[in-house]
Amino acid sequence: MGFMLLDELRKIGIATQIDFDFVSLKSQLRQANKLNSKFVVLIGDNELKENMALLKDMATGKQEKVNLANLTKELKEKI
């Protein structure tokens, strides 16, 4: 799932990175801040069960649930 999503986002010109390190979410979000990421997509076990993702706006801290099928469209509109 993750690699297909990365590929889809990259095809429309959105730079992506996936983290396979076993570090805390807080640590990963700090790294996203260092990279000046505008948005972070969070997909955990619960999100997968619901076919959803959490889309976090790094500037405002606001998070919203987005259907995985609409995620690419939502990100493209926001960027």
Description:
This protein is of the alpha+beta class and 79 residues long. 43% of the residues lie in helices and 19% in strands. It has helices spanning 2-11, 25-34, 45-50, 71-78, and strands spanning 39-42, 52-57, 63-67. It has a three-stranded antiparallel sheet with strand order 1-2-3. Strand 2 (52-57) and strand 3 (63-67) form a beta hairpin. It starts with a helix and ends with a helix. The mean pLDDT is 90.
Helix content: 40-55%
Radius of gyration: 12 Å
Give the N-to-C terminal Cα separation.
Answer: 22 Å
Rounded mean pLDDT is 90
Please state the overall shape, judged from the principal axes of the Cα atoms.
Answer: globular
Which segments are poorly predicted (pLDDT under 50) over 5 or more consecutive residues? none
Number of strands: 3
What is the overall number of helices? Answer: 4
Proportion of residues in extended strands: 15-25%
Q: Sketch the topology as an H/E string, one letter per element.
A: HHEHEEH
Structural class from helices and strands?
Answer: alpha+beta
Concise summary:
The chain is α+β, with helices and mostly antiparallel strands. It has helices spanning 2-11, 25-34, 45-50, 71-78; strands at residues 39-42, 52-57, 63-67. The longest helix is centred in the first third of the chain and has 10 residues, at 2-11.
